[in-house]
Amino acid sequence: MTGAMIAGAVVGAGLYLLARALFPARPGLAARMAAFDAARRRDLEEAQAGRMSPTLERVGGMRAKVGRELVRFCETRGWKLRSIRADLAITERSLEAFLATKFLLPAAALLVIPLIVAYFALLGLGSSVQLPAWVCLLFAVLFFFFPDMQLRQEAQARRQDFRHVVGAFLDLVSMNLAGGRGVPEALMTASNVGEGWAMHRLRDALGNARITGRTPWQALGQLGDELDIAELRDLAGALALVADDGAQIRKSLAARAASMRSRELSELEGKAGERSQSMLVAQLFLCAGFLVFLAYPALIRVLAS
């Protein structure tokens, strides 16, 4: 009875999804305008670059087509996916490749159900479809959420590295301000000192701000919104408030850099404490296993007598 109910529920859900796919709901005006703006922005970026991004060039064939269709599907329904876009921006990946991976991995897990059924039949375990279907469904769910977990972990590590670079960047800006430079010149000079992907992102944002006629703090704030880094947004707000007072902003930047270093040091100390506790637990398990190894022969001898 339970199997029949589950099968009926699966069939009903499949029919519902098929009906939604064949007769999709008409998007509203806001969703249509959002999709139009996103498509125009993407076309302008491709026209300015002269070619597709390197990430999209590596995504070929069916995966690229599926990714574009999924992105268009999300845009027509007005789904922003802000957190995912921020994680993809800081890891320098494309939304098309990410959505295609999320779709193709579960689909591949579901397509191997006949193979698993044939394998079970070859081993003499029966030709029932129920167990292989549940196994493949479990793997499909895991494969659907696996790209999100991987992306989130990588984005968190890169944000931590970016915060470390921002602390050093603030020290460099403070030293340039102490040397008599103005705020825009100090920001640009400090961004030209270091190397690495984080400093390149800061340098590109400040260079584009100079070309487009925006202020450097507006560019830093937009970069903070794009990468979801609160320190850049706070820095942009502070620069916008005290950009005319060189001495005041120099003190503020030095204090921000010191607070960021202190917070980073406390986070490192916390991680070191967690690793020390995990090592202690592992040592306790080893000691318990050694005691069981010593006591097992004596216990067996007592029980046998």
Describe what this molecule looks like in 3D.
The chain crosses the membrane at residues 6-23, 103-125, 131-149, 280-300. With 305 residues, this protein is mainly alpha-helical. It has helices at residues 2-22, 29-49, 54-58, 61-76, 82-91, 95-111, 113-123, 130-178, 183-191, 197-212, 216-227, 230-242, 246-304. The longest helix has 59 residues, at 246-304. It is flat.
Question: Could you give a short description of this structure?
Answer:
The chain is mainly alpha-helical. It contains 13 helices and no strands. The protein has helices at residues 2-22, 29-49, 54-58, 61-76, 82-91, 95-111, 113-123, 130-178, 183-191, 197-212, 216-227, 230-242, 246-304.
Search tags:
305 residues; mainly alpha
Question: What radius of gyration results from the CA coordinates?
Answer: 28 Å
Number of helices: 13
Helicity, in percent? over 70%
Q: List segments where confidence is low: pLDDT < 50 over at least 5 consecutive residues.
A: 48-53
Distance between the termini: 53 Å
The proportion of residues in beta strands is under 5%
Written as H for each helix and E for each strand, in order along the chain, the element string is HHHHHHHHHHHHH
Instruction: Give a short account of the largest sheet.
Output: none
Question: Globular, elongated, flat, extended or rod-shaped: what is the shape?
Answer: flat
- Structural class by helix and strand composition: mainly alpha
> Please, what is the average pLDDT?
77
Number of strands: 0
